[in-house]
Design a protein that fits this description.
The complex is a heterodimer of chains A (249) and B (323).
Chain A lengths: L1 E5 L2 E3 L21 E3 L1 H17 L2 E8 L3 H11 L3 E6 L6 H15 L3 E5 L10 H9 L3 E10 L4 E8 L2 E8 L2 E5 L11 H9 L3 E4 L7 E7 L8 E4 L5 H11 L4
Parallel strand pairs in A: 1-4, 1-6, 4-5, 5-11, 6-10, 7-10
Antiparallel strand pairs in A: 2-3, 7-8, 8-9
Helix pairs in contact in A: 2-5, 3-4
Chain B lengths: L1 E5 L2 E2 L2 E2 L1 H17 L3 E7 L3 H4 L9 E6 L8 H15 L1 E7 L2 H13 L3 E6 L1 E5 L2 E8 L4 E7 L4 E5 L15 E3 L12 E7 L11 E5 L9 H11 L2 E4 L1 H5 L20 E5 L5 H7 L4 E6 L6 H4 L2 E4 L2 H15 L3
Parallel strand pairs in B: 1-4, 1-6, 4-5, 5-12, 6-11, 7-11, 14-15, 14-16, 16-17, 17-18
Antiparallel strand pairs in B: 2-3, 8-9, 9-10
Helix pairs in contact in B: 3-4, 5-9
The chains are: A alpha/beta (249), B alpha/beta (323).
Chain lengths: 249, 323
């Protein structure tokens, strides 16, 4: 079985975002980057599928040289190949998806896995865009997947207030949600071995943007509100404020 | 420029976010000098379709057939894309729900359009739509322009207002003839886990963190939520500890929420949690640590013991709300 996992390199969750002087991007100074958390579930699922069906897992990332760190982590977790589709500039989701889809066309994997979204721009588009560009099915926000020997797949995906079960057929794209599995920690042996494994690199196919950022700004600063009290005697006043001032209950 | 709005329903009932999307679609169409139509897909949906006229749709397209009783992403996105072409839509609006987010990218590819996800504001400037959306879970916002002739936009639930007017819209039935292959990826079962609203859609959220000291104490949070008809939220710490399911997690690795009221109980307010909830209209924090960062974003705070305050709040609200 041929499996591709598309992964992204993003600012870690503790980062306080500052806007760069260009007013359309973030200031990267002092920002720590990491593998986007949902991509870990995608990688883990790929490795488990390989354990069951044999075959090869390729991790693919589209971006600049810093993405090598994230690909290195995927190698340490146990993927067979790592591929960097080089792009030093910014791309919109469609540009990222097109670059990935071009490469995946030649790779023709049976299964393509993504995290359900990258936690930087939170578009939650790229996985399904890639499926649409490849003309294959997709199931997004997957918390359970069972691949059968005949190439059919039963998945549970998260919906508002519950789950739905979706049937599909390979080849297909799946985007992983937390809960799909418990990602492994790279072993020391894995980390050492990953240091010597090659990361292939080639330029990402060029694609014109369809969406352009014209401004980035911080959210309006919130001024700390009022301390209503220090024990349960403050409750009636709190209810009055919520009812009469905020008018939310 | 015409605007087509996909109005999502479950079990033949429209979601509140569908009304919000239709109202936003109408406002946009008025500014762009076009018409706003809605599209409904399902089984047994034709009779309620015309009601979308009250929210501003001048026409409603409806697909009402047994084959569309359950969601099938390839088939549904094809129906939306085809309807957009029939209507001559320059904009396709959807709610950024799990269904909307699942089909919007496919619609974008079918219509060769750019897609702006999870938008919280739309405005028209010189005939061009500027969409605003949160990025980094709300740590920043971007304004964007879609450069393609057809623009696909998903709207965050609970942000746009929908006030029903009067009247109904004429319904035009569509009878799409789609190949069986588009139905091979389809929903076969749906399970609802709680009767409470999902945090992504709830008007009020009661959320708990480490300060609750143990999973058993979340009963207090649930009781308060039930009095308010609210959703239950949780911090990453308690989800990671296995006290609560990930579906309730609010923050950068959970859900970014925009309710009218967010009540944070025993949550200190890590950066990634604040990012996910600070765009709530009103925030109440109940925490015994007066220096907790959550008080920096709270409108109203009680610096006290949540084990006293939360049950008292539940009892008093029950009296006030007559429950």
């Amino acid at each position: 079985m041929k499996i591709a996992v598309c992964i992204n390199h993003v600012p870690d969750t503790e980062t306080k975002i500052k806007v760069a002087p260009d007013n359309i991007s973030i200031d990267r100074t002092g920002v720590n980057y990491m593998l986007s958390p949902y991509d870990e579930f995608a990688l883990e699922e790929a490795l488990r599928l390989r354990e069951r069906f044999k075959g090869e897992v390729t991790a693919v990332s589209l971006g600049g040289d810093p993405h090598r760190d994230t690909l290195r982590k995927a190698l340490a977790m146990g993927v067979d190949r790592a591929l960097l589709l080089k792009e030093d500039g910014e791309r919109d989701s469609f540009g990222v998806a097109s670059g990935l889809a071009e490469e995946l066309k030649t790779m023709s994997p049976d299964i393509v896995l993504f995290g359900k979204q990258s936690i930087d721009y939170d578009n939650a588009q790229v996985g399904t865009l890639v499926a649409a560009l490849l003309g294959i099915p997709s199931v997004s926000v997957v918390v359970r997947m069972e691949v059968r020997d005949d190439g059919t797949v039963s998945c549970d995906r998260e919906i508002e207030g519950g789950h739905e079960t979706v049937q599909t057929k390979l080849p297909a794209v799946f985007t992983a949600q937390k809960g799909l599995n418990e990602p492994r920690y790279p072993s020391l042996k894995g980390i050492m071995a990953a240091k010597n494994k090659p990361i292939e690199a080639k330029p990402a196919a060029a694609v014109p943007a369809r969406v352009v950022t014209v401004l980035m700004r911080r959210p309006p600063a919130k001024t700390p509100g009022r301390v209503v009290g220090t024990d349960k005697s403050a409750v009636p006043e709190l209810i009055r404020l919520l009812h009469e001032e905020a008018k939310v209950i | 420029m015409n605007v087509l709005v996909f109005a999502e329903q479950r079990d033949a009932a429209f979601k509140k976010s569908s009304f919000e999307a239709v109202a936003a679609g109408r406002a946009l169409a008025d500014q762009l000098g076009g018409q706003c139509a809605a599209l409904v897909i399902g089984s047994g949906v034709a009779s309620s379709a015309g009601g979308l006229g009250a929210y501003g749709a001048s026409k409603v397209y409806a697909v009402d057939a047994a084959a569309f009783a359950r969601h099938a992403s390839l088939a549904w996105s094809k129906v939306v894309a085809d309807a957009a072409e029939t209507f001559g839509a320059g904009v396709v609006l959807l709610s950024a729900t799990q269904m909307g987010k699942d089909i919007a990218p496919r619609i974008a590819v079918a219509l060769a359009g750019g897609l702006a996800s999870d938008c919280t504001a739309l405005r028209v400037e010189g005939g061009d739509i500027i969409a605003t959306r949160p990025v980094f879970a709300g740590k920043a916002f971007i304004e964007m322009r879609i450069t393609t002739p057809v623009k696909i936009i998903t709207l965050r639930p609970n942000v746009f207002t929908a006030v029903p007017g009067v009247g109904t819209a004429p319904v035009e039935m569509l009878d799409p003839d789609l190949p069986e292959s588009l139905f091979t990826t389809s929903v076969t079962d749906t399970k609802v886990s709680t009767g409470r609203p999902d945090v992504a859609e709830a008007k009020i959220i009661v959320s708990g963190g480490r300060g609750l000291k143990g999973p058993e104490n979340f009963r207090m949070i649930e009781d308060l939520a039930d009095v308010l008809g609210a959703g239950v939220g949780a911090s990453r710490a308690v989800v990671d500890a296995g006290w609560r399911p990930h579906t309730e997690q609010v923050g950068q690795t959970g859900k970014t929420v925009s309710p009218n009221l967010y009540i944070a109980c025993g949550i200190s307010g890590a950066v990634q949690h604040l990012a996910g909830m600070s765009s709530s209209r009103y925030i109440v924090a109940i925490n015994k640590d007066k220096d907790a960062p959550i008080f920096q974003v709270a409108d109203y705070g009680i610096v006290g013991d949540l084990f006293e305050v939360v049950p008292e709040l539940t009892v008093r609200l029950k009296e006030n709300l007559g429950k």
